[in-house]
Amino acid sequence: MTVLARVTRATRVFGAFTAVDDVSLEVRAGEVVGLLGANGAGKTTLIRMLLGLLPTSGGDVEILGGPPDRERRRRLGYVSQGLGLYGDLTVSENLAFVCQAYGAPLPTLPEPLTATSDSLVRDLSLGLQRQLAFLAALAHSPELVVLDEPTSGVDAVARAALWDTIREQAERGAGVLVTTHYMQEAEQCDRLLLMSRARLVAQGSAADIVGGTQAWAVRTPDWAAAFSALNDAGAPVMLAGRDVRVADDDPDRLRAVLAAAGIAAEVAPVPATIEERMMVLAREHPDTDASA
To answer: Considering 60, 79, 88, 196, which has the largest number of Cβ atoms within 10 A of its Cβ?
Structure first.
């Protein structure tokens, strides 16, 4: 399978601050690669280096067989966190500008955008702006698609529709690299790369990344007090709604902490999530830091 993007031991340093630390990755034709991590893990800095928008402090990057120069960037589609749209132009004017720049035909507007084709982009909802950004980025059928937090800030229905578009790009043979901090979106990817505090700490399928991590559900009506007691005891505790969960800790220790706090609770094993594995890995690398 053709490698469309390659990063080899890339590092980016800002003064004494390391934003990306010795990261390597590949994106191949026909696959969706998810670059996962919490806000501030270093994902956007890595993307900017891959696109040639930011020089590396060390290591190498290449896209479509060479350095990310102007000609190679014309063969990719990019949706940044800021979307790259012109707020004081209409929907139609934004598309016309992009298509003229790439020498591409104007795409057919989907129904939600047809009704707003003469509206200024700044007056659109975020969901419609993201649809337009996708349409503009994909109008010239790019070989490599790079999406930085493409579904951030939109509702679940809009996220699902955007992911349908992402899958369509891979099915036509493009390589897709997508960053996200929504762990549930990991299931939509063919392969996952997990960043934490500037480093690539795990990769593979969701099952590969979770590995042998064990999680525990703490079931009690007094969930807020349970969370506080476990957090104060240094447990890697998370809240999912009102469900208290702890990853990679001794259940007997958890029960002792809760009993000492006077909290009646059941501690039961549950499958761990990628987000919980990410928290465990972050605790294993406390000496590093990162920037988005």
So the answer is: 196
Q: Does domain 214-271 have CATH number 3.40.1650.10?
A: no
Q: pTM of the entire structure?
A: 0.81
Its sign, for the CA torsion 244, 249, 254, 257, is negative
Dist. CA 28–CA 1, nearest whole Å: 6
Cα distance between residue 77 and residue 113, in whole Å: 20
d(CA 227, CA 242): 10
Residue-wise pLDDT tens digits, 188-241 = 899 999 888 898 988 888 888 888 888 999 999 999 999 999 999 989 898 877
**Cα separation, 21 vs 18, whole angstroms:** 6
| Phi, psi for 75 (deg, rounded to 5) | -95, 10
Give the rounded distance of the alpha carbon of 3 from its chain centre.
Answer: 20
Looking at the domain that runs over 3-75+142-209, which CATH code has it been given? Answer: 3.40.50.300
